[in-house]
Amino acid sequence: MKFGVFLYQPGLVEGVDYNFYRIKPESGTVGTPNPKMFTNIACFGDNALAAKRPDWISVSKDGPALRTNKKYNLRWDVLCMTNPEVKEYNLKLIEECAKSTPGISISSQHFADHGFCVCPRCVEQWRQSGMNWVDWRARTVTAFLKEVRQRVVGKPLFVNCLPDPLLGKVRLGYDFDAMAEYADYFCIPMFSKNYPTPWYWETIARGYKSFLEKPVFVNFYVRGPGETWDTVAPTKQIMTVATRVARTGIDGIIFLSEKEEYIREFQKNAVADRETRAFLKDHGGDEVLELFNRWEKLV
Questions:
Q1: pLDDT tens string 220-246
Q2: Is residue 276 part of a domain?
Q3: pLDDT, tens digit (0-9, with 9 covering 90-100), for 141-157
């Protein structure tokens, strides 16, 4: 099993296999690639571009793909997947980062949710395809991923998929079998400010591992932007959910944090919590416990 960190600021963390830098999160801000870090790029989730170009926002019969649309659980503003300018903007950034960093991770490379997008361009492309609505949307998502793959030459490509293994195709356009042709790894964000019930996350991870045709990573939330240690899950809960999920046979775990110093504090807390580490023995997630043991050399 491999381990990594997912950071909003460039900075290397010791004691893990992968360091990811969110050079372009869904806020739409764009940083400078770190040649020692894998690069994560959020594609169609883009608050900044949505504010500048509201005509590019994905639409549904129940309104636009904005965080203010209470009929959907949107965490960011989402642009139309068939907009050629948005596509080329992201593909160019992906290509540039792929040349200078060890690998690429993409997220928000899907439709906003069910019902999107019904702009005139999408409707016309759907009608010309001769396909049903769900299959056309899935083909659109896969076609974009194919273009990404063509820009990421000879380097690993991680594809993030929201945690909906049952209705991922209907809601978001995920055709997992088709996507597996272009992805080297799938990563499932399991972000929460609280992990009191590991069973649910374990179930989702087991479901994905059962049918995805490429290695599966999961991503846990340590401390994102705007948080304090009082507003996120205690280290004990993250240790527990990571150990429980590890026993499903997944291939890796990534920990999200705003910056490296928060990960270092998380590492110190995990090492210091010997009571939880002892409790987690015999749960079947030994590789996570071995990770905590290795971190003892760092703190």
A1: 999 999 999 999 999 999 999 999 999
A2: no
A3: 999 999 999 999 999 99
Calculate the alpha carbon distances from 244 to 74, 192, 196 in Å. 28, 16, 12
Region of 108 please: left (phi>0), alpha (psi -120 to 50) or beta: left
64-86 tens-digit pLDDT = 999 999 999 999 999 999 999 99
CATH number at residue 19: 3.20.20.80
Amino acid at 280: L
- What residues make up the domain containing 13? 2-266
Q: Which one, of 81, 93, 75, lies nearest residue 26 by Cα?
A: 75
- For 223, other C-beta atoms within 10 Å of its C-beta total 22
What one-letter code names the amino acid at 78?
V
The total domain count for the chain is 1
Residue 284 lies in a domain: no
